[in-house]
Amino acid sequence: IMRRSYAHTLVVCLAIAAALWTQTATAAMVSRRVRSVVSECDEAKPLKLWVFFNSKYDTAENERHSKRALQEIVSGSLHEKAIQRRLKMERAIGSTVFSEADLPVSTSFVSSLQDLSQDIKIRTKSKWLNAVSIQIPGCAENLFHQISQLPFVESIEVVSSGKRAVPTSIPVDGARSE
């Protein structure tokens, strides 16, 4: 009897762990800070978020990207001097210096985001971060939840804002400020 209950408990625990793992694998990683900002509903203050993607392209786009295609796409988005510098480096080290990080953010991912709602405004795209910065209305928890459930969304972060420190006094002509 003791062995059966132990085995039963183990099976139940494994089933719960598997269910939790699949749930977190499909939903984007969202920090506590993001959840608290989203839950503080303020209609007047829109939310500015970074949406990070889990790959550079979806599976349909993936098939089209070979090494040569990668170089052609990157060549169209880089300055000529940068391309020449990379090709020179490639000859020197003997391997390719173009990578997926050079590819632009997937247009299909951005389109899918915008298709969710007219309230989503794309602020900027970052190919280096593989992310887009978006702005959504302040009380849009449902929209936020929809974004976090998209299969290509890896994580969501709040756009940090900061203020520059202005010096209180500036020394003039060798005078000391104390």
Main traits of this protein?
single chain; 178 residues; alpha+beta; five-stranded mixed sheet; 7 helices; 45% helix
Task: Give a written overview of the molecule.
By secondary structure, the chain is an alpha+beta fold. The protein has helices at 2-26, 32-39, 59-62, 67-77, 80-93, 107-116, 141-148; strands at 29-30, 47-53, 121-126, 131-136, 153-158. It has a 5-stranded mixed sheet. Mean pLDDT is 76; it is low at 21-26.
In short:
The protein is α+β, with helices and mostly antiparallel strands and 178 residues long. It has helices at residues 2-26, 32-39, 59-62, 67-77, 80-93, 107-116, 141-148, and strands at 29-30, 47-53, 121-126, 131-136, 153-158. The chain has a 5-stranded mixed beta sheet with strand order 1-5-2-4-3.
Please trace the helix and strand order, writing H or E for each element: HEHEHHHHEEHE
Low-confidence parts, pLDDT < 50 over ≥5 residues?
21-26
Largest sheet: 5 strands, mixed
Number of helices, where a helix is a run of at least 4 consecutive DSSP H or I residues:
7
Whole-number radius of gyration? Answer: 24 Å
Q: Order of strands side by side in the largest beta sheet?
A: 1-5-2-4-3
User: Which percent band covers the strand fraction?
Assistant: 15-25%
User: Could you estimate the helical fraction of the residues in percent?
Assistant: 40-55%
Describe the global form: extended
Number of strand elements: 5
Mean pLDDT: 76
State the separation between the terminal residues, measured CA to CA.
81 Å
Structural class: alpha+beta
